[in-house]
Specification:
433 residues, alpha/beta, Rossmann fold, Nucleotidyltransferase, domain 5, 2 domains, eight-stranded mixed β-sheet, six-stranded mixed β-sheet, 14 helices, 18% strand
Length: 433
Amino acid sequence: MEQPVRYRPTRAQLALRRLVRDKSRILAYGGSRSGKTFEFCHALAAMGMRYGGRYAVFRRYFNSVKNSVFDDTFPKMLELSFPGIEYKRNLSDARIVIPCADAEFWFVGLDDERRVERILGREYAGVYFNECSEIAYSSVEIATTRLAQRRFDRNGRRLRNRAFFDCNPPGRSHWTYRLFIEGINPTTRAKLTNFDEYGAIQINPIDNVENLPENYIESTLATGSERMKKRFLYGEFSNDMERALWKQETIDANRVVEVPRELERIVVGVDPAVTSGERSDATGIVVAGRVRAPDGRPSFYVLDDRSLTAPPDRWAREVVETFRFWQGDAVVVETNQGGDLVASALRQIDPNLPVRTVRATRGKILRAEPVAILYQHGRARHVGVFHELEEEMTSYAGPSTPNQSVDRLDALVWAITELADYAGDCVGGFLGV
């Protein structure tokens, strides 16, 4: 007769449970297969079993959260940690309900705009951002506004609403590091006044070795590059920004809060995504303007970041709307992959749109270096804070950077390159692309 499987949390998972008990915002970061997802699913279920209520698990892509958490980890966790508890899986809603506790758990991909709108129309007692290094902080800010459901247990004790986060740690310029390690608001750069509510814990595969396949660490995780091992085996935040072209302190030092009145030219830079599947890259849409100083030297201002992941017809509309909003002078579009179809898509919406197509003939680093020099000389400034864009700028260290999308960065480089080239500006021998 087959013996029932019994679940025993590891020492690291027990430490995470203590953190969940004491804090309301918790980040678990570390290498792959360390038990982070299982434990946060357990925490949500435990809250639901005691207090009832509504909970949400967010991930960047719906298929990822469905296949990984809704179909696998969460049901497996319930069967191991709460044996005998009856639950129902609603496939059409990607929702799990525990009737006896009046608790429901929604599984949400942030790439599904209609579903996100529906989900955010409700209040939640707890939320969990799975693989949060892939999620924009702006999405986190919006989702946590719904963390407001009031729930009480049978003794009248009120639930402390909580938000959980996990990730394989990215670079130190990422919002997770700034928020949970440095205690800084990633948007305003201000110190958190409630940092005592935040907690972070490192959990690595070695901490979960008894639950892993034999030799998984030695034969899989330990065979990667040093960079990959640092992230997926040792679970450490990287120092990418030491090798990146841009430094956060440089961007911060030249930041302004108001759009200059004397802008003489405005350009919308576009780095289009050529596919529209759920794992497609974003289309970078960045607005930049130029000001001419009394000595004749131009300075450049980043005005807006309208980048998004969407099908071609939608991002094309966004480009046109952005151009009209800023009363731009030109749209500069990279056409390496989309060819003339990209410009045609824009002109179908606005036949008079002034589109200039460009083709990348050199690598990203070579194209970006002259623009980075402008920042170093204090001649490129950001009007406000553009978190996702700045994250790309300060963490991209070349083509070997893993899982790094630089669509916003590319759009920025094209926009400023166009402005500098149009002005006849020369920085370090730079006269355009």
